[in-house]
Specification:
Layout (H helix, E strand, L loop, with lengths): L24 H5 L7 E3 L7 H10 L2 E3 L14 H4 L3 H11 L2 H5 L5 H18 L1
Parallel strand pairs: 1-2
């Protein structure tokens, strides 16, 4: 049984450090089966992404950016569980090689993240 306060990586997609989170989101999400809800931060506040998730049968739990003219409603109670996602990233960054990005090649970075994710899953 998995601990309740832990998030596990279901899919990994490596993008450039300067890339915005929202455009590659459908490509990443498409790799997993449809969930009831998707929790994301304000970077995922996009009408197109919200519509794509709705068509997929997933409810977007994403707060509105401050400059949004027509705000969407979102479940604040469900959004409080987003800290689990941040905890998963913190667990990955416990490994110095991941946190400092020693690797220069994308394939090596991705391999390191996959290896560390497997180790973290095995430890828990």
């Amino acid at each position: 049984m998995w601990p309740e306060n832990t998030a596990y990586l279901l899919s990994i997609l490596l993008t450039g450090g300067e890339a915005h989170d929202c455009p590659p989101a459908p490509r990443l999400i498409r790799r997993t089966k449809a969930a009831r809800k998707l929790l994301g931060d304000k970077a995922y506040d996009s009408a197109e992404l919200r519509q794509w998730l709705k068509d997929r049968g997933t409810k977007a739990v994403v707060p509105n950016r401050s400059n949004r003219k027509q705000p969407f409603r979102f479940e604040k109670k469900a959004y409080k569980h987003r800290h689990r996602i941040e905890n998963a990233f913190c667990r990955l960054k416990d490994f110095r090689r991941i946190a400092t990005r020693y690797e220069r090649l994308a394939r090596n970075v991705l391999a390191s993240v996959c290896l560390v994710a497997a180790i973290v899953w095995w430890i828990l």
